[in-house]
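Before drawing any conclusions, I looked closely at one protein, both as residues and as discrete backbone shape codes, quoted below without any editing:
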Amino acid sequence: MTSMIRPGETSSSFIARRLKAGLPNFLLKSNLVSRMRDGTDVQYEQALAEIVTYVALRRSGLEVEVHPQCPHPTNRPDFVRDSAGDSLAYVEVTSFGPDVKSVARDNREAAIYNGLETVDLPPGWLLGYGVRAHGATAPSVKKLKAQVEQWAREECGEDANHVPMRTFEAQDWRIELTLLGGSDKGKVYDRKIGAAMGGLRSVAPHRDLRVALDNKARKYGIEGTPYLIVVADCKGSIPLGDHVEDTLLDGLFGTPAVRFRKLPDGGFQTFDVRGGDGFWGSHGAARNTNVSAVAILPEPNLWKLRDPRWQPIIAYNPSASCPIAHHVFPLSGFGSVVGEEGYGRVEGSNLADIIELPHEWPPED
């Protein structure tokens, strides 16, 4: 079976072989090779999401055209699925990731952090690390290391309970360091940072999802054909796999809220409601009806595709102007329930099964 791992084959090699099947024409029409080879980690994940989506579309046996013509004169979506020359659906793969400024800042901090990992400290001592102020410049790591080493020579002694702390200014950066003395005074550590305090960031994956969808909803002028948008979280915005469903539903149908109503007896009655900020609007006020369905890939790196908490899921637009057939991208998710009124869970396949990953996944190399 082609889906089985060959003797001596690593997990990465298996993925490459499985995804390679049927890809030559796709790769010729895209810049995926250069993005995966020369780009950032985020660009790699974005490209991988496109490849996985393409493979999943092909596995159902229908034809897939890459960067097809569409109503817009110049913009082209990623794919169109067709059968016997009839267009079944346009498919666009997009993502949300860290903004350019954040990536640049993190790269500057990585240079500082990696430099401090190699400072010369007396045996038995480590550093505690924290950033008090992120700078917009790239300071001299060599100069900072020299200052830290001089400080350590002055402060490190025999008393392990002595915990010196100092904030170093490196151009517009402010780095707070603590000297941590252990009991093993004969040990020299390879990595000198023993504790690091990370910065806090706001996590709002449902808002990230809306921004990604807003950027693609009208880009191609698609109105008279079903339109599916597949969104990959390349930001790590979804904090836990259990939050995948909330991210999708809150992003599409509005932020959850609780409304209070005062009763005649002085008590209160509460109602669970959704705000009007959903990508698809709300009941009686639908918008973006041209987008037939949205699928979310919470972990585009593939390793968690067999983890029930991190499953890619799909939601079908109950107000779609052109509904999309379930077999186009047959994931489990949310939509109109057959034989019932209203909106609820719909059954489907796992993406891991669609692209034929082994049942034991990830395998041990």
